[in-house]
Structures are given as structure tokens and as C-alpha cells.
Amino acid sequence: MNFMKIETMSSQLFKRSPWIENPTWDRDQVTRELKDALRLHSLSDSVFSQHVVTLSGVDAPFNADTVFLARLPLHQPYQNKYDYATGVYVWKEARRSMVFHFFFTEEGKKCEEKILSKFYKTVCYLNGDKWNCNE
After folding, report:
1. Which of 19-23, 71-75, 82-86, 93-97 is predicted with the least confidence, judged by mean pLDDT?
2. What is the mean pLDDT of the chain?
3. Which stretch of DSSP H or E encloses residue 67?
4. Which backbone phi and psi does 98 adopt, to 5 degrees?
5. Which of 31, 116, 120 shows the shortest CA–CA distance to 72?
6. Measured between alpha carbons, how far is 111 from 104 in angstroms, rounded to an integer?
7. Percent of the residues in the chain that have a pLDDT greater than 90, as a whole number
8. How many other β-carbons are positioned within 10 Å of the β-carbon of residue 64?
9. What 3-state class would DSSP assign to 55?
10. Cβ(99)–Cβ(8) under 8 Å?
11. Phi-psi label, residue 71: left if phi above 0, alpha if psi -120 to 50, beta otherwise
């Protein structure tokens, strides 16, 4: 079954900017990508909140400070197969940000919540400098 694709860098689909260590970078990044996907010149807070879920504090996966989940509309299927895109923008102070793009078929979209929930447990920022495997 091939109903999902994950990419960490999808520059052929979404515009990218160089990495900058800045707490607003992830919100700026998701805003730019959402504006591109919606083909808008500006983005109101209400449009942002219709497409983006913000998780922070104890609700943020990855041991992150803030995570943005964005439903990114596609105007044509990615690789002629994937009709849906979800961006996951992960930020933690004094650490590099992580950005993931998930692409789903119709069948995969039905399992999105389960897939993302499993993915949240596979990657995380460390607490301090000690590696703790299998936690």
C-alpha cells in the first residue's frame, strides 16, 4: 500500500528560505507556504486559523516549544498521486527547527491522525545533552 509520502524538504512544491534561528521563523514559514498554496498576497489571522493548528506547552509533540500543523491545499496532485498535504513545523528555543511535509492519497488522508500520532513519537528534541533511546 502506497498511500503516503513524507518529505523533509519539498522545494519543488513549497518555497523555502534559508534557516534562521528565530522564534518567529516557523510561523513565518508556515504563513509563506500557506499563502503560496492559497495563492494569496497576504494572510489574515482568520484564514491562518482555518488552516493551521498551533500546539504548544504540554500539547506540543517532539518535546518542542511550538508545533504548527498546516493543511496545505494542492492545486494539482503532488507526483500525480497525492491529493493532500500537511506541513508540520517544529520549533524549540536554541535548537534548529524541523519542517516535515506529509503527502496523502484519499486513502491515506483517512488515516492522517493515526499516522501523525505515530510520527510524533519517532522524532524529538533532547532534554539536555543525554540521549535516551526507546523512551
Report:
1. 19-23
2. 82
3. strand 66-72
4. -125, 140
5. 31
6. 9
7. 57
8. 22
9. strand
10. yes
11. beta
What is the average per-residue pLDDT within 76-104? 92
Rounded Cα distance between 51 and 122, Å, is: 25
Query: In this structure, what DSSP letter does residue 19 have?
Result: -
Q: Can you tell me which residue has the cell 503560496?
A: 36
Distance CA 120, CA 6 (A): 13
Long-range contacts of 31-37 (CB under 8 A, 24+ apart): 33/70, 33/72, 33/87, 34/70, 34/72, 37/72, 37/73, 37/74, 37/75, 37/85
The C-alpha cell of 129 is what?
545533552
User: Which distant-in-sequence residues (6+ apart) come within 8 Å of 35 by Cβ?
Assistant: 41, 42, 43
Amino acid code (one letter) for 46? S
What's the predicted TM-score (pTM) here?
0.78
Average pLDDT over residues 69-84: 94
Q: What are phi and psi of 16, to 5 degrees?
A: -125, 155
Round to whole Å and give the CA distance between 16 and 135.
Answer: 32
